[in-house]
Amino acid sequence: MAAVKTLISFIVFAIMFISCRNEGKPKSEPKNERQTAIQGQPVLLKRRETKKPIVYKERYMSIKDVLINGHHMILSRPKFNSLYKKIDSSKTELWECGDPFEWLDEKWMKATYGDKSEKSGTFEKYEGNVTTLFAQNIEFNTNNHIVLINTAFAKSNSFEIPKHQIVLNQNTSIEDFRKTFPLAKMEKLEDPDEVRFRFYLEAPADDAFLFYFKNGKLNYLKLWWLLC
């Protein structure tokens, strides 16, 4: 009987000892199911977005699409006066082969100088005088009603085609230009350090934008007209 009591006492003591040990251990909290699911998923690294190279796929270039320093190639005289208050020099001379104002500003020219004469090929009272203005490293031509950019040097000016998000300046290299304008053909000039790229204004015309490069960098942009 004494042996039975001893055995029972031992079992009770053992149970109490195990219970005390379990109470001393920190209880593990059950994991949140959402957390477990997230931890089980692989971590996806964000891909770095790379800008696609800008390519001008058009064969022609319109005057309306090109900006010089954020302004259009053709300006009204009041607009020009507000933008270019300092004129470096000016001269008025006869353009014997005609000028682009005859069709770019035909309505005003007709109202000012009368109808076109079949004999002279120009407006009756028009003597053919065009004024050239120089300001901010740009050459302008005007009939005193509208002002047209003739030549703009890249040294202090930028050329933009907003429609295609293209900006050209004095840092634009021949390589950069050819990548942006793959359809433009390079024309060699007498000066071995100078080359030219041509973009016609429209299909049937010879009038064009001419981009001149010197020593591998953009030098100036010219709006060229076939007059004679």
Written description of the protein model:
- The protein is of the alpha+beta class.
- It has six helices and 13 strands.
- It has helices at 2-24, 33-40, 77-83, 101-104, 106-113, 174-180; strands spanning 67-68, 71-72, 74-76, 89-94, 129-135, 138-142, 146-153, 159-161, 166-168, 186-188, 194-200, 208-214, 217-224.
- Strands 3, 4, 5, 6, 7, 10, 11, 12 and 13 form a nine-stranded antiparallel β-sheet that branches. The protein has a four-stranded antiparallel β-sheet with strand order 2-1-8-9, with no helix packed on it.
- It is globular, with a radius of gyration of 39 Å.
- The protein starts with a helix and ends with a strand.
- The mean pLDDT is 84.
Measure the end-to-end span: 137 Å
Chain-averaged pLDDT: 84
Give the DSSP E fraction (strand runs of 2 or more residues).
25-35%
Count of DSSP strands: 13
SSE order in H/E notation?
A: HHEEEHEHHEEEEEHEEEE
Fraction of residues in helix: 25-40%
Total helix count?
6
Helix/strand-derived category reads alpha+beta
Q: Which descriptor suits the 3D outline? A: globular
Oligomer: single chain
Model regions low in confidence, pLDDT < 50 over at least 5 residues: none
Radius of gyration of CA atoms, rounded to a whole number: 39 Å
The largest β sheet comes out as: 9 strands, antiparallel
In short:
With 228 residues, this protein is α+β, with helices and mostly antiparallel strands. It has helices at residues 2-24, 33-40, 77-83, 101-104, 106-113, 174-180, and strands at residues 67-68, 71-72, 74-76, 89-94, 129-135, 138-142, 146-153, 159-161, 166-168, 186-188, 194-200, 208-214, 217-224.
